[in-house]
Design a protein that fits this description.
This protein is an all-alpha fold. The chain has a domain of about 60 residues. It has three helices and no strands. Helix 1 packs across helix 2, helix 1 packs across helix 3 and helix 2 packs across helix 3. It is globular, with a radius of gyration of 13 Å.
Length: about 90
């Protein structure tokens, strides 16, 4: 993963994290970096879930899980964050 790939993952993660936090309003004390990391981690979780449901990509290639699957993973992580924060 190159430098620009990392920057792109953080920017997309920030967008996914922002949308997830918009869809789950509440008092989550997170800055932009944490919101971005929730989005990136949501993409990772969404990728794992999509592999379980649809199988591995052909020839072991990496396939980005997509915005909606990443959003679902980020929402799941935000819900878990709220449960364990209490």
């Amino acid at each position: 993963m190159g430098f620009w790939d990392l920057i792109a993952a953080l920017v997309i993660g920030l967008l996914v994290g922002l949308v997830a936090r918009f869809l789950l309003p509440g008092r989550d004390p997170m800055g932009c970096l944490m919101t971005s990391l929730v989005g990136v981690a949501g993409g990772f979780v969404g990728g794992l879930v999509s592999r379980v449901i649809w199988g591995a990509p052909p020839q072991g290639k990496y396939m980005h899980p997509g915005f909606l699957v990443s959003l679902g993973g980020a929402i799941l992580l935000l819900l878990l964050f709220r449960v364990f924060r209490r």
